C-alpha cells in the first residue's frame, strides 16, 4: 500500500470514528420541544414511611398529572438522573439498609409505555451521595458525595447497569461557617454541554471544582484552573448552564443567592460577573436556597427558597448573562427542595418536601412568571422530580 493511500485510509477511518462518537452525544437542547406525554418520577426520602419512587403521567398539552403509583421501593431515594436516550433511571441514596454503609447508587430500566421500573443493580458508594449525572455518551455515571466531600465516576454497561468505579477525588477546604462548612461538601455534578468538563459545587469550601472528562477512560482529572470561588459563606449547591453555554449559574444554599459566571468553553474556566439574592428585599427569616434551572428558551431562570418557601424567577440578559428578578412566587407548601420544568417550558412542578405536596404551576411565556395551575398532588417528602419522555 502506498503512503498516500495509507494516509487517506487512516484519515477516513478517523473521520468515521469521530462521527460514530458524535452520534452518541446528546447535549441539552434549548428551544421549544413539541408537546406530548411524559413520565414524571418523584423520589420520596426516608423521612416518611412511604419512601420510594412514585410515577405520574404528564400531559404537556393540559398540564395534568395522572398518578401511576409507587414504582420502586428505595431506602432514602434522593436525586434522580436518566441516560441520554431515557432508557434507564439512576438513583442516589444517602442511606442503606446496612447500618455500616452510608449510601449507594441504583439503576433501573424504564418501560417507555407504562413507566414501570425494573431494578438492574446497585453499587455501594459510601459518603452520602446526593447528586448524579450521566455523561452525554451514556457510558459514565458521576456522583457527588455530600457527607465526605468526594466525587466518583462509574462505568455504565450497555444494559444500563452500573459497572466498576473508574474515578475518585477527595475535596479539601472549609468555609467561614464553622457549623456547616467545617469541611468539604460536594453537592452536585454537572457536565458542560460539550461533555468535556465536569463542574462540582462544593458547599463546604465555597468553590465550584472543575474537572476534565476522559470519555475513553470513563474518568476525570482536575482542570487548570481547578476551581472557581463564590463569596465566603454562600455555600454553592447546584449549577446550570445557560443557552449557548456562554454563561453558567450557581444557586448558593446558605446565602440564598444566584452567582452568574462567564464561561470559557476552551479553558473550562468560570469568571464571576454577578451575585444576586433569591429572596425579597427585607426578608429576615431562614435563607436556605435549594434548586436552580433554566427554561427551554434560555430566557428565564428559576431558583427555590426553603424557609421563605418560594420560587424566584429571573429574566436573563442574553448578551451579558446577568439576571433581573421579576417574581418571587410562593411554592404553595413547605420546603421546596426541588422543582422541574416540563420539556415544553410551559409548566413547572414544585416538590414541597415537608408538606408532602407536588404543586403544578403554569409558566407565562412572555415574562416567565408562575401561576398555580390548580393541581396539587399528595406525595410523601418529594426530594427530586424528573421528566422522562413516554411513548
- CATH C-level of the domain at 74-229: Mainly Beta
Distance between the termini: 51 Å
CATH superfamily of the domain at 74-229: YVTN repeat-like/Quinoprotein amine dehydrogenase
Helix content: under 10%
Q: What is the H/E order?
A: HEEEEEEEEEEEEEEEEEEEEEEEEEEEE
Most strands sheet: 4 strands, antiparallel
The secondary-structure class comes to mainly beta
Low-confidence stretches: 1-27
> Widest sheet: strand order?
3-2-1-28
Into which percentage range does the β-strand content fall? over 45%
C-alpha-based Rg, rounded: 21 Å
The residue-averaged pLDDT reads 90
Number of helices: 1
CATH architecture of the domain at 74-229: 7 Propeller
**What global shape is seen?**
globular
Characterise this structure.
This protein has one helix and 28 strands. It is mostly beta strands. The chain has a domain of 156 residues: 7 Propeller (Methylamine Dehydrogenase, Chain H), CATH 2.130.10. It has a four-stranded antiparallel β-sheet, with no helix packed on it. Strands 4-5-6-7 form a four-stranded antiparallel β-sheet, with no helix packed on it. A hairpin with a 4-residue loop joins strand 25 and strand 26. The N terminus is likely disordered.
Amino acid at each position: 500500500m502506498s503512503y498516500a493511500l495509507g494516509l487517506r485510509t487512516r484519515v477516513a477511518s478517523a473521520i468515521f470514528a469521530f462521527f460514530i462518537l458524535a452520534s452518541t452525544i446528546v447535549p441539552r437542547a434549548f428551544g421549544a420541544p413539541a408537546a406530548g406525554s411524559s413520565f414524571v418520577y418523584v423520589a420520596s426520602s426516608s423521612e416518611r414511611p412511604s419512601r420510594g419512587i412514585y410515577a405520574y403521567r404528564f400531559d404537556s398539552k393540559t398540564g395534568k398529572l395522572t398518578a401511576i403509583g409507587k414504582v420502586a421501593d428505595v431506602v432514602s431515594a434522593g436525586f434522580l438522573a436518566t441516560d441520554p436516550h431515557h432508557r434507564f433511571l439512576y438513583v442516589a441514596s444517602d442511606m442503606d439498609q446496612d447500618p455500616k454503609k452510608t449510601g449507594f447508587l441504583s439503576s433501573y430500566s424504564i418501560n417507555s409505555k407504562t413507566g414501570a421500573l425494573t431494578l438492574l443493580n446497585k453499587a455501594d458508594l459510601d459518603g452520602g451521595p446526593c447528586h448524579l449525572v450521566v455523561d452525554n455518551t451514556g457510558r459514565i455515571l458521576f456522583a457527588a458525595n455530600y457527607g465526605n466531600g468526594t466525587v466518583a465516576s462509574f462505568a455504565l454497561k450497555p444494559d444500563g447497569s452500573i459497572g466498576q468505579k473508574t474515578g475518585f477525588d477527595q475535596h479539601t477546604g472549609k468555609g467561614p461557617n464553622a457549623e456547616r462548612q467545617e469541611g468539604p461538601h460536594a453537592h452536585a455534578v454537572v457536565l458542560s454541554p460539550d461533555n468535556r468538563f465536569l463542574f462540582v459545587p462544593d458547599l463546604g469550601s465555597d468553590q465550584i471544582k472543575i474537572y476534565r472528562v476522559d470519555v475513553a477512560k470513563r474518568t476525570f482529572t482536575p482542570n487548570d484552573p481547578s476551581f472557581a470561588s463564590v463569596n465566603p459563606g454562600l455555600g454553592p449547591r447546584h449549577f446550570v448552564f445557560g443557552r449557548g453555554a456562554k454563561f453558567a449559574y450557581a444557586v448558593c444554599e446558605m446565602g440564598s443567592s444566584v452567582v452568574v459566571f462567564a464561561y470559557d468553553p476552551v479553558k473550562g474556566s468560570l469568571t464571576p460577573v454577578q451575585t444576586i439574592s433569591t429572596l425579597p428585599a427585607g426578608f429576615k427569616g431562614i435563607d436556605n436556597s435549594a434548586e436552580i434551572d433554566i427554561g427551554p428558551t434560555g430566557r428565564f431562570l428559576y431558583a427555590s427558597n426553603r424557609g421563605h418557601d418560594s420560587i424566584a424567577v429571573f429574566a436573563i440578559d442574553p448578551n451579558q448573562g446577568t439576571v433581573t428578578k421579576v417574581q418571587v412566587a410562593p411554592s404553595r407548601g413547605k420546603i421546596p427542595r426541588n422543582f422541574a420544568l416540563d420539556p415544553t417550558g410551559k409548566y413547572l412542578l414544585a416538590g414541597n418536601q415537608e408538606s408532602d405536596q407536588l404543586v403544578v404551576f403554569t409558566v407565562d411565556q412572555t415574562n416567565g412568571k408562575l401561576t398555580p395551575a390548580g393541581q396539587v398532588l399528595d406525595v410523601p417528602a418529594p426530594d427530586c422530580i424528573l421528566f422522562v419522555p413516554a411513548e
